[in-house]
Amino acid sequence: MRIVMFGPPGSGKGTYASRLTSLLGIPHISTGDMVREEIRAQTEIGKIIKDYSDKGKLVPDEIIVNLLMRRLNEPDAKRGFILDGFPRTMRQAETLEETSGVDLAINLNVPDDVIIQRLSNRLVCKRCGAIYNKLTLKPKIDEICDICGGELYQRDDDKPEVIQERLNVYRRSTEPLIEYYRKKGLLRDISCNNLMTPPEEIVEKIMSVIQEEFG
Ligand code: ADP
Ligand code: ZN
Question: How many other C-beta atoms can be found within 10 angstroms of the C-beta atom of residue 71?
């Protein structure tokens, strides 16, 4: 089961993918998390990509493709995966096609006002990457992760100026890929128009699409 998730920044891809992973028993692979981990660990790659990420720009294809291929070669990804944040360019989509292929693409449709509300209130766990929201998905204890007890923080790219740039990049570079997968007959649309819709409800919708496809 090889699934890719599309949706603008703040559409909930990461939140839903991390829940689907435990339901489906295949890994959730987020290139955004991988990018943040390289930056946090101050690796050679991390030093090169920090500036792109901070500004809301895409990291060069070659770097991100290398990171992803390394991850897809690990044993747990052999049975399938849920990709979150990849592919984001035509070149990335073609590389994925050549190396492993895709069975299903989920497209999350979310209006801009919901996205901006989500991103400006989003908090992320420093230790495990779990995602919270000051309005809709509060941790049990302020600023502390429910799962691992780690500290919650606001991502550098969740600042208003950068949010707008990420939305522009999404429209320009990533939206055309939706048509690419639609033409292949692999795309399924899921809408979420309301900020307060609980994640469980969307996860349920995605699960029923998956059941239709894979039986
Ligand atoms: P978002 O919440 O905007 O969907 P992600 O967490 O997926 O963000 O990614 C954060 C940043 O990491 C991006 O703005 C970009 O700089 C970099 N990045 C992640 N995935 C990719 C990719 N597939 N190609 C290029 N850059 C990427
Ligand atoms: Zn945590």
Answer: 18
**For the segment 166-180, what is each residue's pLDDT rounded down to a tens digit?**
999 999 999 999 999
Domain holding 204: CATH number? 3.40.50.300
| Calpha distance 153→208 (Å, rounded) | 33
Q: Is residue 51 part of a domain?
A: yes
| Domain span holding position 94 | 2-110+189-214
Start-to-end CA span in the chain (Å): 11
Annotation says 134 is catalytic: no
Coil, strand or helix at 121: coil
Is 2 among the catalytic positions? no
pTM exceeds 0.85: yes
* Catalytically annotated residue among 13, 36, 71, 118: 13
Q: Which residues are within 8 A (CB) of 108 and not within 5 positions of it... i.e. 6 or more apart?
A: 5, 6, 7, 8, 11, 12, 13, 16, 190, 191, 192, 202
Give CA angle at 56 (70, 50), nearest 5°. Answer: 55
